[in-house]
Amino acid sequence: MTDDSQRVVGGILVGTGLWVAIIFVMRNVLKSLLSWHGWMYNRHGHMNIKSSIWMFLVRVFSGRKPMLYSFQSALPRLPVPPVKDTMRQYLESVRPLMEDEQFQRMEGLAKDFEKNLGPRLQWYLKLKSWWASNYVSDWWEEYIYLRGRGPIMVNSNYYAMEFLYYFPTHLQAARAANAIHAIMLYRRKLDRAEIKPIYLLDRRVPLCSAQWERMFNTSRIPGQETDTIQHVAESKHIAVFHRGRFFKVYMFYDGRLLLPREIEQQMERILADKSEPQTGEQALAALTAGDRVPWANARAEHFARGKNKQSLDAIEKAAFFVTLDDTEQRYDTANPVESLDSYAKSLLHGKCYDRWFDKSFNLIVFKNGTMGLNAEHTWADAPIVGHLWEHVLSMDPLKLGYAEDGHCKGSLHPNLPGPQRLQWDISEECQNVINSSLNVAKALADDVDCHIIPFSEFGKGLIKKCRVSPDAFIQIALQLAHFRDKGKFCLTYEASMTRLFREGRTETVRSCTMETCAFARAMIRDDTREERLKLLKDAAEKHQSMYRLAMTGQGIDRHLFCLYLVSKYLGEESPFLKEVLSEPWRLSTSQTPLQQVELFDLKNHPELVSSGGGFGPVADDGYGVSYIIVGEDLINFHISSKKSSPETDSHRFGSNIKQAMLDILNLFQLDKKNVK
Questions:
Q1: 45/136 same-domain check
Q2: Alpha-carbon distance 374 to 157, whole Å?
Q3: Which Pfam families does this one have (predicted)?
Q4: Is 377 annotated in the active site?
Q5: Which residue among the candidates 237, 242, 349, 377 is catalytic per the annotation?
Q6: If you write DSSP's letter for every residue of 343-383 in order, what string do you get?
Q7: What are 232-290's pLDDT values in tens digits?
Q8: Per residue in 134-144, is it b (16+ CB within 10 Å) or e — as a string?
Q9: Is the pTM of this model over 0.90?
Q10: Which of 554, 471, 467 is nearest to 508 (CA)?
Q11: Are 263 and 141 in the same domain?
């Protein structure tokens, strides 16, 4: 090798090494910057000097045009909180729910755990946190979701609604086609990593994007002791259900994605198909709605070979699942309560055999053109599905649009092969399992009491004038409503995300606090307005503080959950952990965030946005409440409970929520002030 060649090779090696070193340093500096969460403690709309400098540095080290997964290696790991802090926060959270004698007993158990078993279990968690990307998420997915042996319908899956007041077309095939095309465009952007990273704080603080990886081509597979998640790299078709028949529909022809009018053409062919379901086919999907073990046994016994395996593969390896529902659902202004309750129940469980609950998500399009989603919970949390749904709703009526006759824009394809009808050979023995699963699912579905409240008296616009966090305001209203509804307080679950950390999912904010209970009692006692306002401010500040702790990895419930798993692994009995993990969440709440505000003109068209979604009750004698803050003047509440419980009534609770919201706003007497 000549001297010139050596110099060139040496220069390349040095340049490459320098480039790798620069990237390594930038990544680690960014990781250190993202580990600091002091910016959370600034007053809303104000930024101190330290936070401003930090923000500038984050922007510098983030690069010019980051893509969806650009920040993954720079996100910090979820920290393991000290046992002492978790014990203190736990005792603080249960104090308003326990009598003095019961609390003193629990305090003794907690102190004993903190002194003896706790440090040993903590050592194992610390060890895991050093080598795992996230010390919680894999256990959370396995033990909270995949190992559950009961039905995932209602108990785990959740739903998303579309527009309430806007109906782009009455044609079922056209609506399905635009939605399917928009979803496939989203998948293409996702495959190319063209979706922008998700941020907090005015697009400056990146969140983890790991949950997007299994959005498409994914299905939950039943097992004897635990289910698994099956994800395939590529899928060129979708699975469609209509009137008891299953179809495989390819989304590509001549190397390109089908256009909306061409997809509508395929949907029209399915709707026009008058063939009857094969023996056992109509209720087949009920297997995914019932208990998991019978489904696992039936899958191994009856779907492991031949045409049944091929057809099942077509469903499980589809990009996603579509139901062309033969019922009509819509918000009816002449019958608002019943129409919305029916719409919610249909999205949550349908007929129990017309959704494939194991798929990552189901697109459901009703006979009159209304639509919605049903999503499986294991692979991701609701904000990830919500991001996709916002994309679909922003594209459907405005960017894709419809012709004057209600059909999709464009023209039919003269040579497009039709959908493939899936073939089944379902034995009598398998039919018995299907019918058994259907009976289990129907009993569960019939017991669900859903109620939707489009709360339009006021929204976050007025709440912000009260100088109270909208989320804190709503959570305090829920506590007051529950106190009036049941005459007591309960352990309350509010979902908070931990996606500031790598592979983060959720943490619990225990919204029932001493401060919130004091405020609720003051409202019942009819204390003076000034006393109530002071207690409200204290409760709101406490809620904000707990929310920050949860988001920054200092919550307690995931820590307690992992400590319990380690104790079981080591064969150690902990009376404290056993009791803590068995406490029921009788009020489970979640906010559906609107993440892509720029996609919607909320000021001029607040009706053109998702009306949120909901989930089933977590406890048999409790409530599930989901809410979405839409623009400045609307909040939609989705309430669920079980009809079999004498303690709950979703409609009664809804009335209490409305009254609580109005009563809290009235404390501020905004109508008596010159508020602009």
A1: no
A2: 7
A3: Carn_acyltransf
A4: yes
A5: 377
A6: HHHHHHTTTSSSS-TTBSEEEEE-TTS-EEEEE-SSS--HH
A7: 999 999 999 999 999 999 999 999 999 999 999 999 999 999 999 999 999 999 999 99
A8: bbbbebbbebe
A9: yes
A10: 554
A11: no
